[in-house]
Amino acid sequence: MKVAFLIHSMEVNSCRYRVLQYLPYLRDHGVEASVHFYKWKWQEKLKFYHSLDQYDILYVHRKLFSPFEFWYIRRKAPKIVYDFDDALMYRSSGSKNPHSPSRRMKFGYLVKRVDFVVAGNHFLRSRVLPYNRNVEVIPTSVDLARYRLKEYGPTKAPFTIGWLGSRTTLKYVRILIPALEKIFQTDPHITFKMVCDRFLDDLRIPVVKKRWSLEEEIEDLRSFDIGVMPLSNDLWSKGKCGLKILQYFGVGIPVVCTPVGVNEDIVEDGLNGFWATDQTEWETRLLRLIQDERLREEMGLRGRKKVEEGYSLEVNAPRILEVLNQVSSKEDKRN
Q: Is it the case that residue 197 has pLDDT exceeding 70?
């Protein structure tokens, strides 16, 4: 089976976690996989689209095409799988109006005409169902072979509340700043560590600013004592797939998060972490974990088990292969 994977770039997190990490497993199981990048010039696009007959399946990651362009792709590709992990049919958090007629039109046109859709969570699946019943939830997964558990023992100062993310999610960090300021007033030995490619500069708390790198990512995660994932409660956030939480759990640290979208599925309140919906809850949940090392370790290990059971590469790579085999056996959908 020959599959062309069409992605944005090798560096984008979503591409790495939704596509690239699966390729070794797929190749080991007989899939001839090749990676291609979205083109900007029509000459380059057409050259690639004219080659699609060489493949059994085109696996499209995340991009929404204009109806005309996708009509052309559909005529050239024997089978198409569409994979997405954001609420692309809506505008992003902070927009005055989350509803976008053009995004919704592109999304509906595309998912109605593909052979299969892989959605990152159940909210995204619900948006596909009005157009296409051939959709399955395969969550974003992490390769646990990369993740070494945090070593628990006497807590070394400073105590670290950590957040790892990208510049596009930096806006959510402001949600928990008032709670962090109050916590710091009670214990000045607590530090907030941000791992990102951009930072907030106007905070009145001690902040460690660490530029993200793939090579140091795991050690940065292991330096956290608690991981946090604040979100706003909107349509865009409901499409998020919880990668931060999975990474925190991967190294065995507990999480405090906003219970929006898939966060509610991954974090079981009071079992492997806590939910926080307002400033009081952010403050009290964080303080409880700060004060109880045993609880932090127990929750962190339960989080690791959660990933092992449903959000790991080992569990979900075979499911991606199963989708490809299922689609490959279908009748050619071109018209």
A: yes
